[in-house]
Amino acid sequence: AGVAVLMISSDMEEVIGVSDRIAVMHEGRISGILDKDHFSQENVLLLAVGKTPK
């Protein structure tokens, strides 16, 4: 049994530092979920604007 925490922040370094997974939203919908192995500022920003991360 895990724990889920909803964190809304514009401080990407903080979010990446405390997360195991990040769900990114674009236009009110989840555009992608990144696991810790795929965290990067670039990938989060790509999802935030509706694009596919590399």
The residue-averaged pLDDT reads 90
* Count of alpha/pi helices: 2
Helix content: 25-40%
Which structural class best describes the helix and strand composition? alpha+beta
Net shape: globular
Q: Order of strands across the biggest sheet? A: 1-2
Radius of gyration computed on alpha carbons: 11 Å
Uncertain stretches:
none
Q: Report the end-to-end length measured between terminal Cα atoms.
A: 31 Å
How big a fraction of the residues is strand? 15-25%
> Helix and strand succession?
HEEH
How many runs of DSSP E, i.e. beta strands? 2
The largest sheet, given as strand count, sense and whether it forms a barrel, is: 2 strands, antiparallel
Count of spatially separate domains? 1
Walk me through what this model shows.
With 54 residues, the protein is an alpha+beta fold. It has one domain. It has two helices and two strands. It has a two-stranded antiparallel sheet with strand order 1-2. The mean pLDDT is 90.
Short key terms for the protein model shown above:
54 residues, two-stranded antiparallel ribbon
